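Try it yourself: sequence plus adenosine-5'-triphosphate, in.
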Amino acid sequence: MDFFHASPNSPIPHAQPRVLEVRQLAKRYGRREAVAGISFSVHRHEIVGLLGPNGAGKTTTINMLLGVLAGDGGEIRIDGLDLKRQRSQALGRTNFAAIYAPLPGNLSVRQNLRLFGMLYDVPALETRIGELLEQFELQTLAETKCGLLSSGEQTRVSLAKAMLNQPRLLLLDEPTASLDPAKAHELRQLIRGIATEHDTGILWTSHNMQEVEAVCDRVLFLSRGRILLEGDPRQLPRAHGYENLDALFIGLAGEGLQEARP
Ligand SMILES: Nc1ncnc2c1ncn2[C@@H]1O[C@H](COP(=O)(O)OP(=O)(O)OP(=O)(O)O)[C@@H](O)[C@H]1O
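Structure, out:
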């Protein structure tokens, strides 16, 4: 099966403007090509899953999109703004939530939202904080220190923080990891709502293929720094002779490993 020729002209799922355009993005660590010249985009109201086995280059890609890691080549445009030349404007339209980036535990929910709101220069900050506390059902926890919250509550606060600046591009790294199935389901609905109701596009990494099938409009399969395959997670498995996304993932990871062998 030929997994290595993802169409460069995959159909655009809808005619919304692009919130993220990545062209020929590359990053090397010594002789290791962690990201090998990838190109993709994310549109408004779209949730795109960035999938791939351990070491595929997902975190390296996200770190370059966040501007915390310099690439060796390529171009990143966020809401039309070049990340290299218009860095602060581009990053002002981006936000991020990940379990490995918890908010300071000694600050209350409100203090954290205030701190990050000031960093993002959010106008009418107290009003915005009030809206977010309501939207993410955090009113009763507003004065509680974040370090005392449950995983599910902390995830909701991280998402509220990530929506402070009403980002055009929202990066979510395994947002439901560590949540029980009921809480994970609630959170997926909440995130789906963000993509539908706001002018936001979401890039979502996850190792949970059922979740990806349920939430993502489109997926990109990354392996050894390259995009192997791209498309609708509900159609891709059958199109390649697999029963579901889990089986396709295992097939792709295997093909990637075979290609890696001398
Ligand atoms: N700072 C670094 N120095 C050297 N090599 C690195 C560094 N960071 C990442 N790598 C290598 O780059 C490759 C891609 O790593 P990356 O963390 O982006 O993968 P990933 O897809 O996020 O994996 P996972 O699913 O395990 O988090 C791996 O081979 C990794 O060992």
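One thing you can check immediately is this: The radius of gyration is 18 Å.
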